[in-house]
Amino acid sequence: MMNKLWVTLALAGAVLVGGCASLDPVQQEKIRVYEEQKKRESIDRSQRESDSGGRRLDKAIKN
Known about the structure:
- The protein is mainly α.
- The protein contains two helices and no strands.
- The protein has helices spanning 2-19, 25-62.
């Protein structure tokens, strides 16, 4: 559910950046920074989930 929300926000941001050339450069930079932050958070979340899965697998193998 959360991923769909972020994708929707990213797409909306892309439309704003691409479709609204009247936005000032400062606002465009804020949007770009926000989208980059969300990408990094998504990558970090995926990495944590992967690490957690690996730990669970190691624990299951040891038992």
